[in-house]
Amino acid sequence: MGCDTCPDDRVMEGVFYVVYTGGPPHAPFAAMQAAVDKVAEATNGIVFRYQPTVHPDGSIEYERATPEPPVPEGYMRDEHDPWVLRPVWSSCLYRMYRVQRLEDGTLKIDGLCAMPMSGIPAHQPLTNTNCRLCKVGCAIGSIPAITN
Predict the structure, then answer these.
(1) For labelling alongside 118, which of 76, 81, 126, 137 has CA 20 to 30 A away?
(2) E strand intervals along 53-106
(3) Is the dihedral of CA 68, 72, 73, 74 positive or negative?
(4) d(Cα 72, Cα 136) in Å, to the nearest integer?
(5) pLDDT digits (tens, 9 = 90+) for 29-84
(6) Helix or strand holding residue 27 (H, E)
């Protein structure tokens, strides 16, 4: 149940957080597409310059009638198609994603660490370097190490 001033029937707008709750490693990316769709519903028919589609493998594809889109951290431009951005994040149980559709329609996707022992504040966007050097990360499908 929501708070007294937050009606349950209101569509959440703006920023969505995607947290891994089980399933295959690409599961968070399927949830990202649902978040992008919710943002599109909440914009009441606004037509954005960029129209992103998030595929189940996590790649983001933009319509080709626009300039090449910016590449968020954790993604790289496809070498054969500059309108396709592929995720390069290492697999981690503790990473969540903050997904936001900007005014031009491009996606701003920040990786955030939900593991306090990493030493990175949960609100601070991650870089690929943070994740590669992390000593407490755990790949999806692995058993987390128990540390004291």
Answers:
(1) 76
(2) 53-54, 60-61, 75-77, 84-87, 95-101
(3) negative
(4) 24
(5) 888 888 777 766 666 667 788 989 999 888 999 999 999 999 999 999 999 999 99
(6) helix 27-42
Neighbours of 87 (CB within 10 A): 21
- Each as own residue / partner, the long-range contacts of residues 109-116 (CB below 8 Å, 24 or more positions apart, any chain) are 109/32, 109/60, 109/72, 109/73, 109/74, 109/75, 110/72, 110/73, 111/73, 111/74, 112/17, 114/19
Give the count of beta carbons closer than 10 Å to the beta carbon of residue 10. 9
Number of residues that this document lists for the chain = 148
CA-nearest of 85, 86, 76, 74 to 112 is: 74
Residue type, 56: P
3-state secondary structure of 28: helix
